[in-house]
Design a protein that fits this description.
Elements lengths: L1 H33 L3 H37 L3 H14 L3 H16 L6 H21 L9 H25 L2 H4 L10 H33 L3 H37 L6 H25 L1 H8 L3 H33 L3 H25 L4 H5 L1 H19 L8
Helix pairs in contact: 1-2, 1-3, 1-4, 1-8, 1-9, 2-3, 2-4, 2-8, 3-6, 4-6, 5-6, 8-13, 9-10, 9-12, 10-12, 11-12, 12-15, 13-15
Length: 401
């Protein structure tokens, strides 16, 4: 559990760097969709495809060269270090497939064809579950690879997810309708716009996930139980994030499309409606997590000390998730305006508060785990304040992409 937490956040960092690029492409495609410019959508997609593949191989090379050094510096337990390195060396080969998968999904979201998002994800998740069972434990005629079996399963699942969404592109004839592949145009102006829009988002995600990795490295110093509980909390964030980030991506698309349709005056009302939906849905999850806190913890560990230590942490984390359901919507509204540099500025301020807090709480004052996780309340409060007040300022209304 502890090692899975470290490697999970490490890989999530690289995955979110790709997501920064796909979010930028999604914003641009949604803007061109609002302008009803299908040819520009195709050019944006094809240029984004080139950038995605190039970056994925750069990140693979970086991981192979520097991962051992990184883990050796920051991890105190040698067996955790060894397991983490072996896992990452396998896991990173899924990046090219993941980035293309993200890019195609950004096309679906940017053009309003969100009904197709489910198919690739269902295949990817379903196959991952089956392969995890087979490759970790040596079931279903597969070799028993242990912890590394999870890495192999994830890579193969990402390949399958990518193939499904590309099949949909051709099956629905979107390739011809939006000029996605023919002609395959590399356009300097579009490349610059993608990179200009994506770089601040990449910086935002990199800073955010690096700080979370820093958090886990500090937690690792407290022992394996604290690390295992924290990994469960990460899983809760990942689960609830499925729904919250769906609303967030919708916000990005709808804001950018509305601006492309010269409906900037409607943007604030659109965002407020999505905030209500996101908060209401997350409130149901909040109640479920708190009512079933004991049961959730018992799924991941059966010791009484694990469960008793984890219950107050679930209370704190579920409250932070409730706040996140509002903050993420306003942050993605900023993304939808195309002013992604503001996203980076907001993230920097939030991380300064977050990083200072967790260092003092964990390393200096050595307080309980629940107070370490209170850092999420601070982080999302700063994100909400910065995003909301920027959108209220209306400084974004005259920006054109």
């Amino acid at each position: 559990m502890g090692t899975a937490g470290i490697t999970g956040v490490y890989y999530l960092l690289m995955a979110m760097l790709g997501n920064g690029l796909s979010s930028a492409v999604q914003t641009i495609i949604a803007r061109r969709s609002g302008e009803d410019n299908k040819k520009a959508i195709g050019i944006t997609f094809s240029n984004g495809f080139v950038v995605s593949l190039g970056l994925s191989f750069i990140y693979i090379l970086f991981s192979i060269l520097f991962t051992p050094i990184f883990f050796k510096w920051f991890l105190h337990h040698e067996h955790v270090q060894t397991l983490s390195e072996e896992f990452i060396f396998i896991r990173v080969w899924g990046l090219p497939f993941l980035y293309v998968f993200q890019l195609v999904n950004s096309f679906f979201m940017g053009t309003g064809n969100t009904r197709f998002l489910m198919y690739g994800t269902v295949v990817q998740a379903g196959l991952n579950i089956v392969l995890d069972y087979g490759l970790i434990f040596g079931k279903l005629g597969m070799p028993a690879l242990g912890f590394n079996g999870a890495a192999v399963a994830s890579v193969l699942s990402e390949v399958a997810g990518m193939l499904v969404v590309i099949f949909i592109i051709f099956r629905k004839k979107y390739a011809e309708q939006f000029y996605l592949w023919s002609p395959f145009q590399i356009q300097t102006k579009t490349l610059k716009l993608i990179i200009k829009t994506a770089l601040p988002l990449k910086g935002q995600y990199a800073i955010s996930l690096t700080s979370w990795l820093f958090f886990y490295l500090l937690i690792e110093h407290q022992g394996e139980q604290s690390l295992a509980i924290s990994n469960l909390m990460r899983n809760l964030f990942s689960f609830t994030g499925i729904f919250i980030w769906a609303f967030a991506s919708t916000t990005n698309t709808m804001v950018s499309t509305a601006i492309g349709q010269n409906r900037s005056e409607d943007v604030m009302q659109i965002v407020q409606h999505i905030v209500i939906l996101s908060f209401s849905f997350t409130a149901v999850l909040f109640i479920f997590m708190n009512v079933n806190a004991y049961g959730l913890l018992s799924l991941f560990g059966d010791s009484s000390s694990f469960i008793q230590a984890g219950i107050p942490v679930i209370r704190m984390v579920s409250s932070a998730i409730l706040l996140q359901s509002i903050s993420v919507i306003w942050l993605n509204a900023v993304t939808g305006t195309g002013k992604t540099g503001i996203n980076l500025m907001i993230e920097l301020v939030a991380i300064i508060f977050y990083g200072a807090y967790i260092y003092v709480i964990i390393e200096v004052w050595k307080m309980d785990l629940v107070w370490a996780w209170a850092s999420e309340m601070i982080y999302w409060s700063v994100i909400l304040a910065g995003s909301y007040f920027y959108m209220r300022s209306r400084q974004w209304m005259n920006y054109r992409m």
